[in-house]
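re: ur question from yesterday

yeah so i grabbed the chain u mentioned. its 135 aa long if i counted rite. heres the sequnce exactly as i have it in my notes:
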Amino acid sequence: MALENTTTINLIDPIKALAQYKDLLITNTDKIVMVILGDSPGVPAGVILADKLARQITTNENLWVMEVGNHTMLKTELEQILNTAGIIQDETPYDEIKAFCLTKGARLANSRIHLQGSLSPARLTHLFREAISNS
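ran it thru and got these structure tokens back, copy pasting raw so excuse formatting
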């Protein structure tokens, strides 16, 4: 299945990965971006579902998915966003986060899905809707 609203971050070349990150989150500030991290069970199906939801959720906003296949690529950039949002806490470090959604413009996040959490339609829709309402 072709992913139409997903950018898969390059895991081999950090320079390419950073360029993809900047293009998606800094240059295109008009997009609401769901970030899905890691390669734990359920992530591939969750990325497909999030891509589908990005096209199906009725909104005037441009919804997008950024798939980062491990927690080390772009860690500095993403961890800073989550620290600023207060998402990273003692009980939930960066490596324990599976998904979160960023608003357009200021790139704020309000909640996350824990590494052991499900990337279910309801949870992913909630993340998108929350970012839409805060954009």
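noticed a couple things. Strands lie at 6-8, 31-37, 62-68, 97-102, 112-114. also Residues 14-27 form the longest helix (14 residues).
anyway ttyl
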